[in-house]
Amino acid sequence: MDPSSIIVAIDGPSGVGKSTVARRLATRLGVPYLDTGAMYRAFGLKVLRQGVDPKSAPEVEALLAATEVGLRADAEGTVLVLLDGEPVEALIRTPEVGQAASTVAAYPAVRRRMVALQQRCGERDGGVLEGRDIGTKVFPGTPHKFFLDARPEVRIDRRYRQLLNRGEEVSREEVAGEVTRRDHRDRSRGESPLAFDASYTRLDASELSVDEVVAALEDRIRSGSLPTCSNAAAPPG
Fold it and tell me: pLDDT for 75-87, tens place per residue?
């Protein structure tokens, strides 16, 4: 298996565990992990720092022209997210930044800029990429396309525990509202909405551990198994 030729696309809604699965799968396959969602979060952080209204497309697009979002691998192979040259991973995981990122990610200009960067990184080094439109927009030609899903209550609980473990003071009701609003934006936006088709393998991770999900994906990649989902829009939730 030539790592540089492997592109794995993992799409799915918020709270389903895409990032954790993608990190571990990348390690198992010996390829980089490219956190595409972190790129949108980095730009969302810039929007908030500059006092720009995320709902104002003209202001957001003007700021985009003066912003550099990049990915860089460190000595250990971890891919760092850079905002105007500054590592910002520790600053972009708050609910506030997540909401801003979800809003600005709906703008076509923002998505085009980020997609171009993601494609350059993947084409150069291969990798496991996770997000909302990796298999439909960023790398639609890869044979390794997965849609991870889980029941809404499971995703809300996972996201709630994740934030608590980071020391965030949030209620489950706040998290439920965040997940619901983000699901609506992701599925209804005009540019690259969250969806999957018959070229994907869909996996319901509601009752599976992270290791079980990773093992299932790795087995399909190494065996070259065909997708196992119907040609349908992403399920509600």
Answer: 665 678 899 999 9
